[in-house]
Amino acid sequence: FRSNLGFPRIGPRRELKRALEQFWAGRISADELLGAGKELRRQAWQWQAEAGISHIPSNDFSLYDHVLDTSLVVGAVPNRFQSAKPGLEAYFAMARGVQEGHGPGCCGNGNGHPSAALEMTKWFDTNYHYLVPELEPDQTFALRSTKPVDEFMEAQALGIHTRPVLVGPVTYLRLAKSRTSGFRPLELLGGLLDVYEELLRRLADAGADWIQMDEPSLAVDLELAERDAFLDAYGRLASASPLKLLVASYFGALRDNLETALALPVQAMHVDMVRGRSELDTILQTLPAGKLLSLGVINGRNVWRTDLADAVATVRHAVEALGANRVMVGPSCSLLHCPVDLGGEAGLDAELRSWLAFARQKIDEIGLVAAAVNSDDGPSAAPTQEAFAENARAIASRRASPRTRDPGVQARAKAVDAAMLRRRSAFTARRALQRKATPLPLLPTTTIGSFPQTREIRHARAMFKRGELSREAYDDFLGEQITEVVKFQEECGLDVLVHGEAERNDMVEYFGEALEGIAVTAGGWVQSYGSRCVKPPIIYGDVTRPAPMTVRWIRHAMQGTAKPVKGMLTGPVTILCWSFVRDDQPRSDTCRQLALAIRDEVADLEAAGVGMIQIDEPAFREGLPLRRDQWAEYFRWAVDGFRLAASGVSDATQIHTHMCYSEFNNIIDSIAAMDADVISIETSRSNMELLDAFVRFEYPNEIGPGVYDIHSPRVPTTESMIQLLRKALEVLRPEQIWVNPDCGLKTRQWDEVRPALTNMVAAARAVREELANA
Q1: How are beta strands 612-616 and 566-570 bridged, if at all?
Q2: Could you tell me if 249 and 261 are in contact, meaning their C-beta atoms sit under 8 angstroms apart?
Q3: What is the DSSP letter of 500?
Q4: Which of 3, 404, 592, 651 meets the CB 3.0–4.6 Å disulfide criterion with 430?
Q5: Which residues 6+ apart lie within 8 Å of 16 measured at CB?
Q6: Could you give the CA distance from residue 553 to residue 601 in angstroms, rounded to a whole number?
Q7: Per-residue model confidence as pLDDT tens digits over 673-712
C-alpha cells in the first residue's frame, strides 16, 4: 500500500499566505478565502492520486493550524472568545487575538479590552508552531465543527477516496495547558473521547473506511499514566469505531513506548523508519498477528533524495516477515515540513538539484519503493528502472562530491580549544565595564531587531533580484529605509536602537545567502505558522564566511544617531535548526562550523565600534532531542556553539540573545551556561509565567521579558504593559530588567508598530517613575 500522512498546505507559490493576508486586510471575502483553501486541497489530492498514493490524507489542510482546528472541532474555545461569531471570526480570534474595531473578522470582548490569542509553541522538535489548547477542570467537549467530514466529502465529490487525519486524543491533551494549578488536561480524556466517537461515526456514514490518528507523543518520554491513557483511549475507540484505525507515531523511535504502541487494538501502526530504523526487527517480531505496519522510509522533514535501494531493502525485509498485504510505504511524518515542488528550482545548479526531493518528489519516491517491492525482481518497468538508476547516480554523486568538504574549515573546527568557549571575565565584572561604556537608564528599552518588511521593501528586493534595479540604486533604497527606522526610534524614545534589517529577507536565509556551503532556493517555502512562511537554506557542505555580512548596514545606522545601535546576528544553533541540514555528518560538527563563521562576524562588528551585539537563538530549545537522556549531549555542543560564536569579544562588549516561545523550566541551567549578558524572552502571551524558571534558578544576568506580543495585530495599551512590568518587578531586580517586544517586528504593519512601541516606551518611563518615587 502506498500511503501518505500529510501534504504541505500553503501551495507551491504560497497561495494560502496571500489569501489569508488579503482576507485579514479586507481585500477578499470569507467565501474567497475558503475558495482558495478548497482549490489548494483539490490540487494536493490530485497530485497524490496521480502519484498512485492509495491512502491519501484529508483534513491535513488548515487555514492556520491543525491543533487549533482540533480545538474548534471538539468545542475547546476559551471563555474570552465566546463573544466571537462562530466560524472564521472565532477561529482567527483564537489564532491572532482580538481588539475592538481592529480589522476584519475581529471581535470585541464586550468591554473594549483586547483578548490575547492562544499561546503558540513549537510542534515537538520542528520549526512549525501550533496554538496551545487551553483547558480547565470544568471543560466540556462537544462536536462544534464538522471540518474533517466536510473535507472527506469534498474529496469524494472529486472522485478521490481519502483517509481523514485527526490529532490523536492523547497527544491533543498532552499538548494542552491549564491555568488551574495541579490540574492535568489528560484527566479530560473520557469527555474528549465522546466527541471522537461521534466524529468517527459521522465519517463512517460519509463513506470513510480508515482514520489516521496522529500520536507523535509516542516518540517522547511518557509516564505510566500516559501509557495507560493510550491503552484506554484506543481500547474504547477500537470497540466503538466503525472505521479502521491507523495510529501514526513519528519524529523518533518508540523505544520504551514500543510495547504500548504495538498493544493498541488498532488495525495499523505507523512507525518512523528514518529516526527509528534500529527498531524494525523488534517490531517485526512482536507485531500482533493481522495488524498492518506502515513504514516511514521517506524522510518527511528534510529535502535530500531517498536512497531508494536502501528504502527498498528495508521495506522488503518487512514484507518477507509479514507479507505484502500487511505493509504500507510512506514518509516518516507529514510532508508539511517540506517545500512543495522542486520543479520550480531552475536556479539551483544541476548537481545540487539532483540531490534533492521536495514533497511532490517524495510522493513519487513512495511509489517507486512500493513498485520495486511489489516486483519479484526489483524495478521491472523501463521507466522505473531508469528512475532507480538515476537515483543511484545522484546518491553516489553527493557522497563523492568535493564541494561538500573543505579541509581548511575542518581543520579550523578541530583546533577549537576551551579558551575560545568562554568570555574573559565573569558577568559581574563585564556588567560594570558595559555600564561604564554605555550608560543607560533603569529599565532600558529596545526591540528585538527587525522592523516591518513593507510592500515597498519587498517590491524593491524583487526588482533587484530580477535585475530591474541596479545594485547602487537598491543600496541607496536600503540606506534610506534604515535612516527612517533610526529616525523613528529616536523620536519614539527607545534607548538602544537597531537598524531594522531592511536588507534581510529572513533571519536565517539572509545568512545562508552569504555563507559558503549553503544554498538557498527560489520557492522552497514551508509554513512556520499561519501565513508565516520561511525558506530554509540547504546546508550541503562545510560552512565558511567569505566576507563580512552585516557590518556595512550597522555602520550606516550608527551614522544617524548618538544612541547605541545593536548589531543583529542569527546564532549557529538557530541557523542549524531552521535549515535543511546535511545528513552525512553529525549536526554538532555543522553547528561548530556555523559558530566559527558567526564568531568572525562578531569580531568584525566589534572592530567597527558596535558595543552591543545580539546573537539570536530562538531555536535553542526546539533543537532538543525528544528524549531526555539525549539532552546532555545536545546541550554540550549547542551551548559550546553559542559560546564559540560570542566569546571572542572584550568584556565591555555586551552580548545579547533572544529566545521565543519556549518552556524554560527544564533547560534554564543550560541557558545560564550560554553566559549572554542580556537575554530577551517571550512572556506577554503567558502573562509573565515564563519568568518563573528564571526566578527559581536565580538567573544572574539581565533579562528582557517581552511585554508586547508581536504575533498578534493587537496594539497593546500602555497600562497593559505597565501591569506586565509590575509583575516582572515582583520577581526580578529593577537593574536586571530590559523592556522589549516578544520578538522581531518584521511581520507587523507600521500602523501597529508605531503606537505599540510608543506605548511601550511610555510604560517603561511610568514604571521608572514609580520606582524613583517608591
Answers
A1: parallel
A2: yes
A3: B
A4: 651
A5: 9, 10, 36, 37, 40, 63, 527, 531
A6: 13
A7: 999 999 998 877 666 777 788 888 888 899 998 888 887 7
